[in-house]
């Protein structure tokens, strides 16, 4: 087996509340261990409040880890601080749930997309930056004139493409997608899911794909983790998980998904691939 | 039999008269007593505006034309006094977000009992007793405890149950449910849908169930209306719509619903493009730019909603063939 790209061992994250003296601690993640191999998509499912987003943020060092180990490419990923931390972050990018609130409404798309390049590749000249942005916009399926426009001129699906472009520009080794299609219409969800699958195939990056939508996770993931109450209950390959879920909670989750009775199936001539 | 609800040529527009932004563009839809009709559509298809119009809840900025008859009375232009007698008593609505639909500073018991005090002239203690019993019926495990809670102390699923319970207290003839499970987790969603089905069986109320999720609607609705860009593009019995959609958009929507069973496709089926923005709805079929079956006239001539011989209706110049005629 190849060495994991990212590895977490017995991760614990706590949120503190209350004033001086009366501090109470809430455990958001407890004893979470996982590995993501290069090029792999790890799915993460669970209900709201189970700790999915907390885990994503902990893996990206966006919030403090109380205990446990985190290794990125074999190196201690909890140790870097300051400049080193910021530089390493280019390898771990994230796409959030709400695309509209994830881009600055006062900046043009070009200005938003320049930021990661300025931060992570300061040696690039203005012309090279533009060329990289133009190529990336084309790659995510947006017209070149998008550069001059502002976020409000785009629909939710287009905005998510912009967010994907921004995350992909620094050429990350791991892309974390935190409910990237949950706020999109059904007809648009497939477009973004297929785009992510294409990008992964082309770049060989790894993905952590978080969603409460089991069907979408099933489409993209090689392996899937099921979380509840801050713990991982089950870890299985996608085939195992859907064919033979082991944990009762996983079975409960699968049974709750409303299923469309497909009577004979709709005509297939309508849609392309 | 007279329809319980009859929406006729409903139009809802915002903005100036010169450049109106039409959210609903001529919707006609009827519900019989006890019937459940599902309305499916994507964002900005006009489904929430249809719900709000049905409840007489559109804001002052909305310009409404057409009729919304409830038990023979037109809700459009109805005096507020009369509207308030109907709403909450014979017509009730469940909203998407149970957090904002409950009053944060009132205990659950108080805001539920209020329904009966206001609409039925009940005394507070009798109303609270009825609220207590209702919390049990909607599946709250400890109704006595729940009655004394404030909304923020409850989970999303419990709040939605409370809201449905509050709606049902006055035994409405029509429940309008706008994305009632969208904010909830799948396991809770399954419970709430089960609850709606049971309450419908027990009380015989009609439900207008609105959702972006066909799978959610399909389990409960007798008929389904598919909306696109402010219009109903197809209306048919649920089984017929699922097995043999006539409108290309309905067919595409059906294919886009991802499944957790069956083989995993190499790529998810998608619909290219996106729905037209509210200000960009020119003439012709609004779906034409995304439709693979379009022909020249689709771009200029808006297809009317036409009844088919299977008891449904569709608005398409080149509908898919009826199921019976298909190999």
Describe this structure in words.
The complex is a heterodimer of chains A (273) and B (327). In chain A, helix 3 runs parallel beside helix 5 (156-168) and helix 5 (156-168) packs parallel to helix 6. Chain A is globular. The longest helix of chain A has 18 residues, at 186-203. Residues 264-273 of chain A have low confidence and may be disordered. Chain A has helices at residues 52-59, 82-88, 109-120, 126-139, 156-168, 186-203, 214-220, 238-243, 248-256; strands at 6-17, 24-36, 41-45, 67-72, 75-76, 92-95, 174-178, 206-210, 223-228, 231-237. Chain A has 273 residues and is α/β, with parallel strands linked by helices. The radius of gyration of chain B is 21 Å and the shape is globular. Chain B starts with a strand and ends in a 13-residue tail after the last strand. In chain B, helix 4 runs parallel beside helix 7 (156-169) and helix 7 (156-169) runs parallel beside helix 8 (186-203). The model of chain B has no long low-confidence stretch (mean pLDDT 91). In chain B, strands 6-7-8-3-9-10-12-11 form an eight-stranded mixed β-sheet, sandwiched between helices. Chain B has 327 residues and is an alpha/beta fold. Chain B has a domain at 234-327. Chains A and B meet through helix 5, helix 6, helix 7 and helix 9 of A and helix 8, helix 9, helix 10 and helix 11 of B.
Question: How is this structure best summarized?
Answer:
The complex is a heterodimer of chains A (273) and B (327). By secondary structure, chain A is an alpha/beta fold. Chain A has helices at 52-59, 82-88, 109-120, 126-139, 156-168, 186-203, 214-220, 238-243, 248-256; strands spanning 6-17, 24-36, 41-45, 67-72, 75-76, 92-95, 174-178, 206-210, 223-228, 231-237.
């Amino acid at each position: 087996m190849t060495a994991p790209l990212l590895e977490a061992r017995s991760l614990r994250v706590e949120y503190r509340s209350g004033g001086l003296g009366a501090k109470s601690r809430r455990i958001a993640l407890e004893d979470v261990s996982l590995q993501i191999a290069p090029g792999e998509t790890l799915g993460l499912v669970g209900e709201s409040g189970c700790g999915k987003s907390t885990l994503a943020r902990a893996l990206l060092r966006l919030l403090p880890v109380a205990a446990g180990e985190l290794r990125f490419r074999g190196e201690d990923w909890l140790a870097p601080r300051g400049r080193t931390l910021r530089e390493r972050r280019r390898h771990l990018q994230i796409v959030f749930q709400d695309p509209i609130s994830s881009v600055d409404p006062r900046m043009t798309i070009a200005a938003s997309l320049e930021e990661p390049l300025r931060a992570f590749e300061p040696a690039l000249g203005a012309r090279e930056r533009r060329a990289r942005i133009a190529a990336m916009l084309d790659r995510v399926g947006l017209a070149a004139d998008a550069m001059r426009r502002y976020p409000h001129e785009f629909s939710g699906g287009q905005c998510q493409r912009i967010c994907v472009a921004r995350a992909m520009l620094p050429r990350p080794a791991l892309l974390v997608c935190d409910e990237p299609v949950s706020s999109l219409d059904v007809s648009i969800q497939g477009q973004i899911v297929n785009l992510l699958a294409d990008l992964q195939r082309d770049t060989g990056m790894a993905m952590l794909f978080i969603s409460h939508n089991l069907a979408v996770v099933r489409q993209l993931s090689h392996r899937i983790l099921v979380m509840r109450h801050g713990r991982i209950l089950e870890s299985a390959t996608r085939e195992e998980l859907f064919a033979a879920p082991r944990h009762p909670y996983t079975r409960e989750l699968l049974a709750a998904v409303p299923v469309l009775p497909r009577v004979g199936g709709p005509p297939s001539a309508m849609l392309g691939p | 039999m007279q329809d319980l609800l009859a929406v006729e040529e409903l139009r809802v527009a915002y903005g100036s008269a010169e450049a109106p932004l039409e959210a609903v563009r001529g919707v006609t839809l009827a519900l019989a007593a006890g019937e459940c009709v599902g309305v499916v559509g994507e964002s900005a298809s006009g489904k929430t505006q249809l719900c709000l119009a049905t409840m007489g809840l559109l804001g002052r900025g909305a310009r409404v034309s057409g009729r919304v008859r409830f038990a023979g009375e037109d809700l459009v232009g109805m005096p507020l006094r009369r509207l308030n007698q109907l709403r909450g008593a014979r017509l009730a609505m469940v909203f998407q977000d149970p957090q904002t639909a409950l009053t944060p500073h009132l205990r659950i018991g108080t805001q539920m009992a209020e329904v009966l005090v206001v609409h039925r002239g009940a005394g507070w203690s009798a109303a609270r007793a009825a609220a207590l019993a209702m919390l049990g019926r909607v599946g709250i495990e400890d109704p006595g405890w729940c009655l004394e809670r404030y909304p923020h102390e409850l989970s999303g699923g419990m709040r939605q149950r409370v809201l449905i319970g509050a709606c049902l207290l006055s035994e409405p003839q029509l429940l309008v449910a706008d994305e009632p499970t969208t904010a909830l987790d799948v396991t809770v969603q399954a419970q709430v849908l089960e609850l709606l089905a049971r309450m419908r069986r027990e009380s015989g109320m009609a439900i207008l169930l609105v959702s972006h999720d066909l799978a959610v609607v399909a389990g409960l609705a007798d008929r389904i209306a598919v909306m696109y860009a402010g219009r109903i593009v197809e209306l048919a019995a649920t089984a017929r719509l699922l097995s043999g959609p006539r409108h290309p958009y309905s067919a595409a929507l059906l294919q886009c619903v991802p499944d957790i069973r069956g083989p995993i496709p190499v790529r998810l089926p998608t619909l290219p493009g996106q729905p037209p923005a509210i200000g960009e709805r020119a003439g012709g079929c609004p779906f034409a730019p995304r439709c693979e079956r379009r022909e020249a006239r689709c771009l200029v001539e808006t297809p009317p909603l036409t009844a088919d011989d299977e008891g449904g209706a569709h608005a398409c110049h080149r509908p898919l063939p009826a199921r019976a005629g298909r190999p």
